[in-house]
Write a structure and sequence with these properties.
The complex is a heterodimer of chains A (about 240) and B (about 425). With about 240 residues, chain A is an alpha+beta fold. Chain A folds into three domains: about 35 residues; about 80 residues, no CATH class; about 120 residues, Jelly Rolls (Sandwich), CATH 2.60.120. Chain A is extended and about 90 Å long. The longest helix of chain B is centred in the last third of the chain and has 25 residues. In chain B, about 45% of the residues are buried. The chains are: A alpha+beta (about 240), B mainly alpha (about 425). At the A-B interface, helix 1, helix 2 and helix 3 of A face helix 1, helix 5, helix 6, helix 9 and helix 15 of B.
Chain lengths: ~240, ~425
């Protein structure tokens, strides 16, 4: 009787262990660990030249024996990538080389998140500061293609760390447009305090009436123009470059 | 296949930390008590983690001593269990302990070996810091790293220690130490002794089933604080039943480790020291000595970091802290209320997503209405109040965009805090049968 009880208890424990194994995909993962080498598993986990581009970084690190800690600029919002190529013994050394990942070209259009019909926000604004020099233009898109006359005020502001509003720029714009309008802004990102991470764009019609369905984009000017660099290696949108 | 063998081997290397320096079958420490072995194993773990902490601050590269350390431990293990005392039979009798523990460790370890990805903060700080140690540099070299003073180094040191110890130098072997600490902490809160207990095993496996999430083992340090809080919460419970002053010492040792894992560790440690001081099972003299000893350890940490980086301020690592007196002085009431209005929904959301946290708090509320409120429940209630106060203060006084801070950190703060509730929940489940009868 005691033996039977012990056996059934062992069986229940075994079933639970099997459930845990299935839940964590143990058998598939055991197969991977046994049959695939660490480097291969690593390459499969990270994308090659998209997102974090860890696969490509490992490749160029091995190919060019990179040990001088070049700066990595990733235009996709991903975690810091220094860990992939860092040489802890040469941290003070300044490299003349750069690694540009997900390079968007000399200009990049970023759509703003719409809070309501009047208010738009650039989230994680501090992310753009080390990649782009300035906001060149605001692009306003209207869904209908009927000619529209407009007379608007655009306020650009953010909040300081005590939640006080800082008005950065006010634009009075008028004219007419059909579906797309570009307004020159030329706003230097380095002059802004973006530590609070959000930059707000508020639009009002000067006659007080309601705004209709708009979408706002901003055009950003890239800090790093490929023409100013010698390309050492390139795959798709990933570049290993050296300052000329 | 070599990797798999190495995973198995590293389990036994970690296991040494539980069985030396104090003999788990034959110790004078808790000799009057039954079921002493698992408590001694947890003491051994705390002692060994503190020894590793000491090794981390000496200016000698890991690679020059870690193998020697392992050899000494191995021979000491052979000496105290097989030469000084012939305890092969004890190991045979308690074979269940390593076996169930090993199986769960292996399942999680294989998962870690396959998933491999690192967490956001691990990529920023912890991996690079462990790389310093791995590449034969010492603690005092980390100041060359731009984020070197962000968070203490101990978790990264453990990572590097076991990473560089193994023949195949693969980083995740260091992270398996986190898996080991976590697995042991849950095993410890579920079991009273090394002896096989069906019900406790069921709870142990179920806890792992409910809890396991690879994200916890991506190199982030929260899992270490969580695990040690879980172990220490059981010590507070044991104070009543074992009435042993050694628990005060081991609580201090645990607190010492916590302050070296993450900056907020100091807050958790201060909360635990406060609990120690309100406990009615500890003599006044022990309370005073324990508190003084703890503050000396905090000062020692501060002195070491002063040496490590001359810019370091007292008690906190200099840069990388979103806290400043200037910011706190300039906060106005409206802004504080605005922050509280944001903190509350995020806290509720993440609390509801953390089974230990929410069940722990609900149980605590319920147990507080019972007639016979134990000293342990009193301690847990104080922990709950101080922990909530900490969470609110941490975000109110943080000089960082509040929504961004809440989105990126609140889940981990709730998770870390929940470690202290694990034993409360487990103990309640274990006693449920008795209560129903």
């Amino acid at each position: 009787m005691i033996n039977l009880k012990k056996k059934s208890q062992t069986l229940i424990l075994l079933v639970l262990v099997i459930i845990l194994s299935i839940n964590t995909n143990f058998f598939k993962k055991l197969y991977e660990v046994i049959s695939w080498k660490f480097d291969l598993r690593m390459a499969k986990k990270y994308s090659y030249c998209r997102g974090e581009s860890v696969g490509w970084l490992f490749d160029i690190k091995n190919k060019y024996q990179i040990n001088d800690n070049p700066k990595i600029i990733n235009y996709d919002h991903e975690p810091d990538l220094n860990w992939t190529i860092i040489n802890t013994k040469k941290l003070k050394q300044k490299s003349n080389k750069l690694i540009l990942l997900n390079y968007p070209g000399s200009e990049f259009t970023q759509s703003l998140y719409k809070i309501d019909n009047n208010l738009f926000v650039l989230r994680d604004a501090h992310f753009f500061v080390d990649k782009y020099n300035k906001i060149k233009n605001i692009e306003i898109l209207h869904k209908s293609n009927v000619d529209k006359k407009f007379n608007w005020t655009i306020n650009i502001y953010n909040f300081d760390k005590f939640n006080n509003m800082n008005n950065i720029k006010t634009l009075n714009v008028k004219g007419s447009f059909d579906t797309r309008l570009k307004i020159n802004l030329d706003m230097n990102l380095n002059d802004l305090d973006l530590s609070q991470t959000k930059l707000y764009f508020e639009i009002h019609k000067n006659n007080g009436s309601e705004l209709e369905d708009l979408q706002l984009n901003i055009e950003l000017k890239n800090k790093y123009i490929l023409e100013n660099f010698q390309i050492i290696d390139n795959t798709d949108v990933c570049y290993y470059v050296e300052r000329i | 296949m070599i990797e798999l063998l190495q995973i198995i081997l590293i389990f036994f290397i970690f296991f040494l930390l539980l069985v030396v320096p104090i003999n788990i079958f034959n110790s004078n420490l808790l000799i009057k008590e039954n079921k002493l072995d698992l408590n001694i194993a947890s003491f051994n773990l705390l002692i060994n983690c503190n020894i590793l902490l000491l090794l981390s601050i000496i200016p000698i590269a890991i690679n020059s001593y870690n193998f020697l350390y392992l050899i000494i431990y191995f021979f000491y293990f052979i000496y105290i269990y097989f030469i000084k005392n012939n305890q092969l039979q004890d190991f045979k009798k308690n074979l269940f302990f390593p076996s169930i523990f090993f199986i769960i460790f292996l399942i999680i370890a294989i998962n870690v070996a396959s998933e491999l990805t690192l967490g956001w903060d691990a990529k920023y700080f912890y991996y690079i810091k462990s790389l310093f140690f791995f590449e034969n540099q010492i603690l005092y070299d980390i100041k060359k790293f731009v984020f070197g003073t962000w968070h203490p180094h101990l978790g990264s040191y453990y990572w590097a220690f076991y990473w560089s110890l193994m023949p195949l130098k693969i980083e995740y072997f260091g992270r398996l130490f986190y898996v080991f600490i976590f697995t042991f902490s849950l095993f410890y809160v579920c079991h009273d002794s090394l002896k096989n207990n069906f019900k406790n095993n069921i709870i142990f496996i179920l806890l792992v089933l409910i809890f396991y999430n690879y994200e916890r083992f991506t190199g982030l340090q929260e899992i270490l604080i969580f695990s040690f809080l879980a172990i220490l919460s059981k010590y507070f419970f044991n104070l009543k039943y074992l009435k042993n002053k050694y628990y005060a010492l081991y609580i201090i040792m645990g607190c010492n480790l916590i302050i070296w894992f993450k900056v907020e560790g100091i807050v958790y440690s201060l909360i635990l020291i406060s609990l120690l001081n309100v406990s009615s099972y500890i003599p006044k003299k022990t309370k005073i000595y324990s508190t003084i000893f703890f503050f000396l350890l905090v000062i020692l940490k501060s002195i070491i970091y002063q040496f490590f980086n001359e810019k370091t301020n007292f008690l906190v690592e200099s840069i990388g802290h979103p806290y400043s007196l200037e910011y706190i002085y300039n906060l106005n009431v409206d802004f504080i209320f605005y922050k509280i209005k944001l903190i509350v929904p995020y806290l509720i959301f993440y609390a509801l997503n953390n089974i230990f946290f929410i069940v722990g708090i609900l149980l605590l509320l319920m147990l507080n209405f019972e007639k016979s409120r134990t000293d342990f429940i009193k301690c847990m209630t104080i922990y709950f109040i101080l922990n909530f106060a900490f969470i609110f203060c941490a975000y109110i006084f943080r000089d960082m965009e509040i929504e961004y801070a809440l989105k990126t950190t609140m889940e981990r703060v709730v998770f870390t805090s929940s470690g202290f509730y694990v034993f409360l929940v487990v103990n309640y489940i274990r006693n449920l049968e008795k209560k129903l009868n």
